[in-house]
Design a protein that fits this description.
By secondary structure, this protein is α/β, with parallel strands linked by helices. The chain has one domain: Barnase, Chain D, CATH 3.30.370. 39% of the residues lie in helices and 18% in strands. Strands 1-4-3-2 form a four-stranded parallel sheet, with helices on one face.
Length: 128
């Protein structure tokens, strides 16, 4: 996975720390959205998985701009101060395209910066 913004990605693969995800990011302060990386090997799978996990509206456009808009709007839709995208089977996550991995990292980093600066919120991607 491309680095994205500093601290955006947390790699807990093969770590016992993955068991303590809710201790590290306790609800209700954090909303943890779980996705299966094996179902998100490409952009279409990612859009479907993230849309479902974060409960995006039905009009979600399933493209990078729409994903960015919905991630920036998370505090309006979900009662939490921070948001975690927890990716199980992360070795398969966006494995079909290096350019999609890079685009996702850039977009998620941009969303995180916006949430921190404008909404006093946070976004993290945790690789499990």
């Amino acid at each position: 996975m491309a680095p994205g913004e500093e601290g955006l990605f947390l790699d807990l693969r093969g770590s016992e720390a993955a068991e303590g995800l809710e201790r590290r990011f306790p609800p209700p302060d954090y909303f943890i959205a779980y996705v299966d990386g094996a179902a998100a090997v490409d952009k279409a799978g990612l859009m479907e998985a993230v849309s479902s996990a974060f409960r995006f509206p039905t009009y979600f456009g399933r493209n990078w701009d729409a994903l960015l808009d919905c991630l920036r709007s998370l505090p309006d839709e979900l009662p939490a101060k921070g948001f975690v995208l927890a990716v199980r089977n992360s070795s398969a996550f966006l494995s079909a395209s290096a350019s999609d991995r890079e685009a996702f990292a850039d977009m998620a980093g941009e969303a995180r910066t916006f949430l921190r600066e404008k909404r006093a919120s946070d976004l993290r991607v945790v690789l499990l």
